[in-house]
Amino acid sequence: MEPIVSIIVPIRNFGNYFYKCLDFLIAQTLTNIEIIIVDDCSEDDILFYIPRYLEDIRIKYIKLEKQSGPGGARNRGMEIARGNYIAFCDSDDWFDLDYCKKACELLDATNADIAMCGQIREYDSSTAEPLYKCCYHTFYELSGDMAFQLMSYNYKAEIKVIPPCNNKIYRRRFLECHHFRFQENVYFQDTIFSVETILNCQKIICVPDVLYHHYRRTGSIIQSFDQKHIDDFRNLGNSIRQYLQTNNLYTKYKKNYYNMITHFYGVIIREIFQFIVDDTKRKENMVQTFTVLKEIINTEEYIHFLTAEQLKQHLVPGLDDTSLY
């Protein structure tokens, strides 16, 4: 019997949370699944840590011959996936137990190509209040255009659409028909993937009351900073703009493009100030980001979309009192 959903789990070196990840996948209330572990050239012997899990015939393990990053690992998993649907789970994250069952039932009932679930951030220590990146308490059905408007910060509504692929389940036929693939060995690759998939999707659904649990560990990509972040920010901008232009969508979604660039530039700046202590090094990185911005932004286009208040904040940050006397 073919599995209903294939869950692709990229891994690069073993971490203790991988046990929790596998435990929650194996315990899914939808039992007709396959779990594809894709080892991205780990320095660890992953098989040494998980022999008892491999006794479950639903689990498959493959190791890449060349390190390709999460994007390349996901691509390899998609090549061998047999399920009607495809889901992605990072090796230190986990799903609610009803995650696959509820999402796949709604995908079947609505004939949608993408289902989005809530996402919550998890830490080693408890937080005063849960931090939801998005959360759906009610069923919603969206067009690809509306979902993209929300994801690119162009519309504000009672729901959020976030770029990561991990809180989404995709119809495999939809991914194969459009030949969607992740970029390899770059950060932000799932944002580029989400732009392309969402803009090609006729119907997207929000699944209520199930969560993807994203564990934020020290030393992860989003908990560090290096030159590659700046280089891949450039790639993010160039890739999205090229995709929109190639598909004659740039004029329609130009403002959305600049919204996304503004958002992710803010992420880069926050990382520089959070993870780099030396002020000289901070300044060097800031100068590098200015160079990138000149490559991916048309200044006249960008200013066109700014309000006078936003332009004031760019030119004189913190100027709140505009009275002359």
Show the helix and strand layout.
Blueprint: E1 5-11, H1 17-26, E2 33-39, H2 46-49, E3 59-63, H3 69-80, E4 85-88, E5 94-95, H4 99-110, E6 114-122, E7 131-134, E8 140-142, H5 144-151, E9 168-171, H6 172-178, H7 189-199, E10 204-215, H8 227-246, H9 250-275, H10 279-296, H11 299-305, H12 308-315
Parallel strand pairs: 1-2, 1-4, 2-3, 6-10
Antiparallel strand pairs: 4-9, 5-10, 6-7, 6-9, 8-10
Helix pairs in contact: 5-7, 7-8, 8-9, 8-10, 9-10
Describe the structure.
The protein has 325 residues and is an alpha/beta fold. It folds into 2 domains: 211 residues, Alpha-Beta Complex (Spore Coat Polysaccharide Biosynthesis Protein SpsA, Chain A), CATH 3.90.550; 88 residues, no CATH class. It is 44% helix and 18% strand. Strands 1, 2, 3, 4, 5, 6, 7, 8, 9 and 10 form a 10-stranded mixed β-sheet that branches. Helix 2 links the parallel strand 2 and strand 3. The radius of gyration is 21 Å and the shape is globular. The model has no long low-confidence stretch (mean pLDDT 93).
